[in-house]
Amino acid sequence: MIEIENVRKSFGPLEVLKGIDLTVEKGEVLTVIGGSGSGKSTLLTCINGLEPIDTGRILVDGTHVHAKSTDINKLRCKIGIVFQQFNAFPHLTVLENVTLAPRKVKKMGRAEAEEIAIKQLNHVGLGEKRDVYPSRLSGGQQQRMAIARALAMSPDYMLFDEVTSALDPQLVGEVLDTLKMLADDGMTMILVTHEMSFARDVSDRVAFFHKGVMAEIGPPEQIFGDPQNEETRQFLSNVR
Amino acid sequence: MFNYTFHWNQALRSLPQLLEGALVTLEIAVLSMVIGMVIAVFFTLFRLSGNRYLNAFAVSWIEIARNTPALFQIYMAHFGLGSFGIHLSPYAALLAGIAFNNAGYLSENFRGALKAIPDTQSRAGRSLGMTWLQSFRLIVMPQMFRVAFLPMTNQMVWAILMTSLGVTVGMSTDLAGITQALNARSFRTFEFFAIAAVIYYIIAKIVTLGARLLAARMFRY
Predict the structure, then answer these.
(1) What pLDDT, in 10s, does the model give residues A22-75?
(2) Domain edges within chain A
(3) Rounded distance, CA B49 to CA B219, Å?
(4) What residue stretch is flagged as signal peptide (chain A) (predicted)?
(5) Is the Cβ–Cβ distance between B97 and B74 less than 8 Å?
(6) 3-class DSSP state for residue B174?
(7) Options 3.30.450.20, 3.30.420.270, 3.40.50.720, 3.40.50.300; CATH of A2-89+157-239
């Protein structure tokens, strides 16, 4: 379970998160929508401790993410994150990209790490590409590789930060299909996305962020069908 | 006006000795590069660490190495340290001087190369549970070496040529030292130095070519 309690976060004079309270249950798929600068991406990087927070706290399975006593590297093994820029490691083959963290962080043997990596690569449809370098992959393939790389650490939670935003339109589908598959497998996920119809399909709940505040949260039918908040209504009428 | 008679045979007979010297030259150059690279990697870490003292130490070294004559650096290693009771042999002083110089230039090369690698690479490593040092060593550093590879090759050639400054501190077993000794005995100055120059040229070319082949093997991505 991820518990976010009254989290505030500023970049200099700009307050990007203005007291967020949110709980994500095991197995839940939560999508976060909102305009740019609404704080949704920042929230994700706070959850895995890449960004410090000013006040409040974030607990992952009861572990305080930003506490000094927390072994953040160990905690991050539980929380996979995939970014908008694919961040493939260009000097490593696809297989090496995926086995690197299991081998170096989890101290797995090569054979075991490769077995897991191949399973994950097959899962995202990249089994054939294991020996090529990322520069030979399309954007969509690179992004699926990044997903396999995160999954190879067997995380309990997956965070997706606008993972289709940097893709050509015809490549968005393959990545969304991968995400859908993960959701169907029961993975606990928080997705920041601009793909509204996708959000409607896969989410258990949808949260709408506006100017650092979570303006509304509810089941997709409510958010997309009958938004209670004026800002939500306006945002959705603009994106559709 | 021009009555110098060339005696190439005499000089060519000494070719084995010169080539032996060339091996010593290459040895010093390679060692000085290895030492220089290790120090430069540490300096890169010092500069990234955010620690004021480590950063100041690295920056001072780099400033001196890059803005004073290499000859003085080698002199200091031999005669300068000698004043403090630290006596380095000509070989050690030459190696230390060139390694000092290499470390300075390579640090700057690495710093430039780092700018070409997006922060998101290290961030991606951290988000997979790697420590800062792991993500530097496994993700950032290999990419840094690729970007810096060409300037590193230049520095290697420069290191080979710098070894000739060893004659000023009494270095006698490298290519320049042997050339100098043979010249002193025979006064065939032009011939000996011309042949030595050709050997330097060939070593430099082989190193450059070797580096290119190595790069093609190492950086297939």
Answers:
(1) 999 999 999 999 988 899 999 999 999 999 999 999 999 999 999 999 999 999
(2) 2-89+157-239
(3) 28
(4) none
(5) yes
(6) coil
(7) 3.40.50.300
Residue A225 touches partner B, C-beta closer than 8 Å: no
Do B138 and A50 count as a contact with CB atoms less than 8 A apart? no
Written as six digits, the tokens of A32 are: 């976060």
Classify strands A157-161 and A188-192 as parallel, antiparallel or unpaired: parallel
In a domain, B205, yes or no: yes
Please give the tally of structural domains in chain B: 1
**CB < 8 Å to A133, chain B:** 220-221
Token output for A103: 């081998």
Domain with B33, as residue range(s), is 8-218
Position A237, amino acid: S
Q: Which of residues 134-153 of A touch B (CB under 8 A)?
A: 134-135, 146, 149-150, 153
Check residue A203 and give left, alpha or beta (phi > 0: left; psi -120 to 50: alpha).
beta
Rounded CA-CA distance B103/B107 in Å is 6
Q: ipTM value of the model? A: 0.90
